[in-house]
């Protein structure tokens, strides 16, 4: 699993949470979680990230303008 975000602090926290959840569910067979700080408004940065991450089986995107909310809270327009 590969994660990317603009900010290292949020990215590191999310990566640690996903890794811990994976160990809780799969034990020692949990998939590796890699992460990188990426500006998704930069096409080349996204292209490089995807190339380094390998084939994409599932893509989840949450890119919006502040104020950001947790992923599980829907944004109201």
* Poorly predicted ranges: none
How large is the share of residues in beta strands? Answer: 5-15%
Morphology: globular
Number of helices: 2
Question: How confident is the prediction overall: mean pLDDT?
Answer: 81
Alpha-carbon Rg, integer:
14 Å
What's the topology here?
Layout lengths: L1 E4 L2 H19 L7 E4 L5 H11 L24
Parallel strand pairs: 1-2
Characterise this structure.
The protein is an alpha+beta fold and 77 residues long. The longest helix is centred in the N-terminal third of the chain and has 19 residues, at 8-26. A two-stranded parallel sheet has the order 1-2. It contains two helices and two strands. Helix 1 (8-26) links the parallel strand 1 (2-5) and strand 2. It has a domain at 2-53. The chain has helices spanning 8-26, 43-53; strands at residues 2-5, 34-37.
What's the short story on this structure?
With 77 residues, the protein is of the alpha+beta class.
């Amino acid at each position: 699993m590969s994660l990317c975000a603009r900010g290292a602090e949020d990215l590191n926290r999310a990566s640690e949470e996903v890794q811990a959840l994976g160990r809780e569910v799969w034990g020692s067979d949990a998939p590796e979680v890699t992460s990188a700080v990426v500006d998704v408004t930069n096409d080349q940065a996204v292209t490089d990230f995807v190339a380094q991450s390998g084939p994409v089986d599932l893509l989840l995107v949450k890119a919006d303008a502040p104020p950001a909310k947790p992923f599980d809270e829907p944004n109201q327009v």
